[in-house]
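In this section we walk through a basic example: taking a raw amino acid sequence and producing a predicted 3D structure, encoded as C-alpha cells. The instruction is simple. Fold the sequence below.
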Amino acid sequence: MSRLMKTQGDKVIWTIVFFLSAVSLLAVYSSTGSLAYRARNGHTEYFLVKQLTLLGLGLLIIYFAHRVNYTIYSRVAQIGFLLSIPLLMYTLAFGSNYNDASRWIRLPVVNLTFQTSDIAKLAIFMYVSRQLSKKQQVITDFKKGFLPIIVPVGIICLLIMPANMSTALLLGASCMLLCFIGRVPLKYLMGMIGAGLVLVILMFAFAQITGIEMRTKTWSKRIESYTRGENHEVPYQVQQANFGIASGGLFGKGPGNSTARNFLPHPYSDFIYAIIIEEYGIFGAFLILACYMLLLLRSIRIFKNCPYAFGAFLSLGLSVTLVIQALMNMGVNVGLLPVTGVTLPLVSMGGSSVIFTSLAIGIILSVSRQVEEIVGKQEVTNVPVAA
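The resulting C-alpha cell sequence is shown next.
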C-alpha cells in the first residue's frame, strides 16, 4: 500500500496502462484457448498465467522506472546505443529463426528468447532525444546538427531491416517525426526519406542478383497481396480477420465467444485486435483506439509543460512510437495496411515486447513526475502571503 501511495506521474496514463493490461488478459485468454488445449494437454490457463506474470513484471518495471529521475536515462542513452549495435549484428548472424527471420536471441541458462530490436528501439529514442536537446543551437547545420542525429538512426534501422522490415520502417518514421518536432530542417528529412527508399530498392535488387534471401520474397508477397491479392484473392489472414470483424457488430459476441481465433494465425499477437472487435464490437475497438490517442495527447501535454528539452523529446518520442505501432497493428487487422509482424503494445501476448513497452511507459511517467514536481514548486512559490 505504501508503494501505491508513492505512485506519481500522469494519472490518466496510469489508468490507460491498467485498462490495456486488463484487456490484454481477457483477449489473450480468449485467443489462446484452442492453442493451449492442443499444445498444453488441456491446460487452457497456461498462457493466461504466463501473460499475467509478464504484465505483473511490466507493472513493476513501470513503477521503478518512473521513480528514477529521467535525467539518468540521458547518461545511459549512449551506452544503450553502442550495445545495440553488436547485439543486432549477433542476432543477424546467430539469432533464433522464426518464420525465416532472425529476430531473437536465446538466453542459454534460462532458455528464454527476446527481440534485440526492442532494446535497440528504446536505446535509439533515448539517444536521439539526447542529441536533439544538445544540438538545438546548431540543429540547422547539416554536419554539426543533423548528421550526429541521423547516422545512428540509419545504422540501427539497417541492422534491423534484413530480419524485420516493418519494425525498421516504424522506427525510422518515428525518429523522422521526432526530428521534425525538434526543428530539424524539412529538406534534410526529405533527403533521408529519399535515401531510405533508394536503399530499400537496392536491397531488393541485391537479393535478386545474388540470390541471397533477405526476406525480400516475403515482403514482395505481402505487398502484392495487399495491392491486388495473391492470385487476385485476399490473403488468408485478412480473410479470417474480416470474418471475425464482420460478425462482431456494434457490441460484439461477448468475451470468449470468438470463432476467428480458431482459424487466424497468431490471433494472440499480430491479429489480437480482430479478436477484440469480434468479441467487443465496434465499441470495444473504439475504446482501444481512444486509449492510444489519449496516451499521445497526455504525452503532448507533458512535452509542452516540461522545461527541459531532453525530457520533452524523450516523453513525446516514446509515446509517438507506441501509438504509431498500435495504429499499424490496427491498420493491418482491419485491412488498411499490408500484413506485418507488428504487435499491439501492452495488449498482444509477448515477452520482451511487454517488458520494453513497460520500460518506455515508465520513462514517460518519470518525465511526467518531474514536471508535476516542478509545477507544484512553482505553485507553492506563487501563493500570496496573507495580510
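Looking at the output, two observations stand out. Strands lie at 96-98, 101-107, 112-115. The mean pLDDT is 84. In the next section we compare this with other chains.
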